[in-house]
Amino acid sequence: MRQHLLTSTAAMLLAFTGTAFAGMDEAKTFLDAEVGELSTLDRTAQEAEMQWFIDAAKPFAGMDIKVVSETIATHEYESKVLAPAFTAITGIKVTHDLIGEGDVVEKLQTQMQSGENIYDAYVNDSDLIGTHWRYQQARSLTKWMANEGKDVTNPGLDLADFIGTKFTTAPDGDLYQLPDQQFANLYWFRYDWFNDEKNKADFKAKYGYDLGVPVNWSAYEDIAEFFTGREIDGKKVFGHMDYGKKDPSLGWRFTDAWLSMAGNGDKGLPNGLPVDEWGVKVNEKSQPVGSCVARGGDTNGPASVYSIQKYLDWLKAYAPPEAQGMTFGESGPVPAQGNIAQQMFTYTAFTADFVKEGLPVVNADGTPKWRFAPSPHGVYWKDGMKLGYQDVGSWTLLKSTPEDRAKAAWLYAQFVSSKTVDVKKSQVGLTLIRESTIQHKSFTDRAPKLGGLIEFYRSPARVQWSPTGTNIPDYPKLAQLWWQAIGDASSGAKTAQEAMDSLCAEQEKVLGRLERSGIQGDIGPKLAEEHDLAYWNAQAVKAGNLAPQLKIENEKEKPITVNYDELVKSWQK
Fold first, then answer.
1. Is 98 helix (H, G, I), strand (E, B) or coil?
2. HSE (CB half, 13 Å, CA atoms) of 490?
3. CA distance 537 to 402
4. For residue range 405-439, what is the model confidence (pLDDT) as tens digits?
5. Which of 67, 121, 306, 391 has a CA positioned 20 to 30 A from the CA of residue 367?
């Protein structure tokens, strides 16, 4: 049904695209058909914002521009509905291509390396912030908005309203990317099973504490054990879900902050400093100095190895047997099929797929039988550290894009993230980027059917979820190393320690090549001297930092759970 509405709305707007009279009539048609009251602006303010776009776009009317993003529901809505609307309203013809996430990065790299203008703007993950800052191939949006792009920067953009700009700001203080969609990895569990009286009584009898949302990995492990093999509604269920196939998607599973949840790296929000959640350490000039413990990093430290070992143990003991051979895409729908009790983290971008009518995990009244909650943390984790990952797909303008084309693309980027359209776009894709949208009444009304998503985004807890930070000097080159190393551990070819030793060594090869090339200047890598774990731990402690931590002999700490409903109440206070 939603797809039909998208298609029909787009068709209606395309009727205007061929006319020479882009303007307020087209804007009003769009506002009537698509936005209505689903906006933080009233109708007068919506029309005023549309008038600004119409006026600012006049010098570029008739221009054909191309932009690109990965294929998720939010971007499908932009491509099929908002791009035709923008074309109809402004006269700038936009082709918004949808391709795989890896393909977006490949096109971006090609344009950066060749200087050839492939796309006029990219929606790419803010995980590339360290890359963009160090290579200086992307326009600083701070400088752009103040200078060349000033005449095409919406006075109503309201950067302070965006919840993800900390993630797209470099150590130089400049904004390099504008958030367009954002989602977190959260703990997912069967709220109905956790509140079942027999389940609660049996769990308390076996473990001596209350069944609830696990605060730490020790409790998660007990809950996984408790539910695995238990019969519920006539079928055997599992206490955990994950995936293990040696595939590029296995890399995201870990670079998306798995190590931080265990307690890898240092304290600091949005990312640990000087050691981040990848285990990469930087000096006071933000130059990466190492990844291995031998150089003061933490990629192969005790916290990291513990995180990999727990992943391996849980996958084998508590997940469906077929999970071992699954990719990210294959494993994603499994919890919604009704035989999984909990999942350590679930991408909230797929919330819409978990609330579809008729699913085994959805009640007859449309409310979910499951909930999202903050992820539990490992034994090495300390208060003040990040606790999970947020994906922030963000608009990026490369310097190789001619100025007039960059201006036209910047107008489109602002249009699709504007206050006029953001509430409606967020209702479709559930990838929230603006505080004003999060607080909108339509989300208050819809919250009971979204399983805790809105409560989380309105909570103080959300600041502990962040993307990859600025310590990573070349995200595309380094990220691709992870799936190969983890795949070796998942297949049994290497132990957790051997896999992470190999990974940190490979990361340092890349850092070393970047250092020797000098391509990133005085903000590029500068590898440190090698010493043992005891030396670097003592240095960290002396400086008031954590990483790399020494091994904790008893990694099975006291399990702690909290009641979900009490947790939500505490946020509201």
1. strand
2. 23
3. 49
4. 999 999 999 999 999 999 999 999 999 999 999 99
5. 391
